[in-house]
Write a structure and sequence with these properties.
118 residues, alpha+beta, lipoprotein
């Protein structure tokens, strides 16, 4: 009798654990999604207004340094079969209201060092 109860409990546990993948979990995106094409439009000496027009408002503006903007994007996958979690970051440094330097996870265009004025 005890063996039979144990067998039923083990069988039920195995069946329920097999159903764990049936639960739908949504992906959770957070931050500014940046397209590579938009990032490649950036040029040295662009103003803050021009950058905002191309990329939108930054997620974070440094409270202590108003000349640094952060564009962050993070994707937390609900299910592993849809891909891995990832995070992308773009940090724009301004000098006298113009782009001075860009760092982050995006490749800049070959024309980045050519100002739009020329």
């Amino acid at each position: 009798m005890k063996f039979r109860n144990l067998l039923v409990v083990v069988a039920a546990a195995l069946m329920l654990s097999a159903c764990a993948d049936w639960i739908y979990r949504i992906d959770v995106p957070q931050g500014n999604f940046l397209d590579e094409r938009d990032v490649k439009k950036l040029r040295i000496n662009m103003t803050k207004e021009q950058v905002e027009y191309v990329l939108g408002k930054p997620v974070v503006e440094d409270s202590f340094d108003h000349d640094t903007w952060y564009y962050l994007y993070q994707m937390k996958r609900g299910m592993a079969k849809r891909g891995k979690d990832f995070r992308k970051e773009l940090k724009i440094h301004f000098l006298d209201n113009h782009i001075n330097k860009i760092t982050g996870d995006f490749e800049l265009s070959e024309d980045f060092n050519t100002p739009l004025d020329e």
